[in-house]
Input
Amino acid sequence: MNKVGTVREVSLSILEKIEKQQAYSHLLIHDAMTKNHVKPIDKGLLTELVYGTIQRQMTLDFYMEQFVSKPEKLEIWVKLLLRVSFYQLYFLDKVPDHAIVNEAVNIAKKRGHVGVSKLVNGVLRTAIREGQPDVAALVKEPMKRLSIEISVPLWLTERWVAQYGEAKTREIGEALLVPPHQTLRVNPLRGNIDEIIEALVADGFEAEAHPLVPEAIMVFGGNAANHPMFQYGAFSIQDESSMLVAHALHPEPGMRVLDACAAPGGKTTHIAELMNDEGQIDALDIHAHKTKLIAQGAKRLGHTIIKPFQADARQYGKDIEEELYDHILVDAPCSGFGVIRRKPDIKYQKTAKDVASLSVIQFDILDALAPLLKVGGRLVYSTCTIDEDENRNVWERFLEAHPNYEKAPLSLPNDLTTLDQTDLQLLPDNNFSDGFYISSFKRIR
Output
């Protein structure tokens, strides 16, 4: 089998596992590349086929409905084969139409029978002949049309429209369809921005300093995790919006800090770098195996002040003395709607019930940890979601339950916040790659 066919077969296999097992795409892609010995030149195409097909799944299914009379009766793998083929036809310019059809038909023959290959051939050739269906012309109901166009489930589209308005929801949805760039966070204990950029560019990467976050480098093309300087610990891979969380905490050398939901440890190690690796960071996570990721990251970066351990943040405060920590970070478990670009499966797997359950957990964590902060200390609450029920509504409830806390000014690099601003909602359609929420509090008594 030729190289292109192999890539498409692997992509189909990944999509099938995601559909049947609800597995996460980014983990499956990495695993498939290793097991199938995917060549470096093909990795970009494989990633694009999988992510692009998932990102635009609802749009692609709508297209399929225009050319297949009863798509619900198709076998899963046939439906997925048509999805990935429609994605290539309508959203990629890299492969000629006839090649897309030929590859799909060959896969159908190999996995199915003559009838299936004829169906795939007929559907795709009709789609090429008739052109891309016009969603705006075919769907009159505004919310349903918007949902299909941005490929976001109807319940979530309606939720975002209620919170942000229809125009902003469209901008958010369209932004989430654009592949993210990679951002690096420089470890000042092992290097500086200029020398790292120089090393990356010398090895064929396109890299430049971030205009707003002082320790960030934007990288375009290639995977910087494969660079020797990553293994040396000169930098970490972390979205720039996520980097702002440690800055919001304002940790100082010698402090004792609690990172209450720390795994996999990106923010934990950033805090250690801002503390010049002086003091102590207690980094807990509810899953014991995830604390190993924190320890591995700290070791790679050369940090010695991070103490990872397993604990449920909702129960942790019952076993230790009050007013133990100078600062506390609660980067809470959330729906992840701000990082759909990186984990597109999320938008199809989460429900409104999940959001409601998560908001309870988020409040319970804040409530349990409140006594552990010293008077005058700072508590930062953050999530990688854009849902108000997980953000503003949670901390409003927290303040009602804890009158010894008040909102505190949120000071971030390069005047990203105003003088009296106490929280920040980053949306995926702005200059930052991910949607993120950050709020700041102070214990006053």
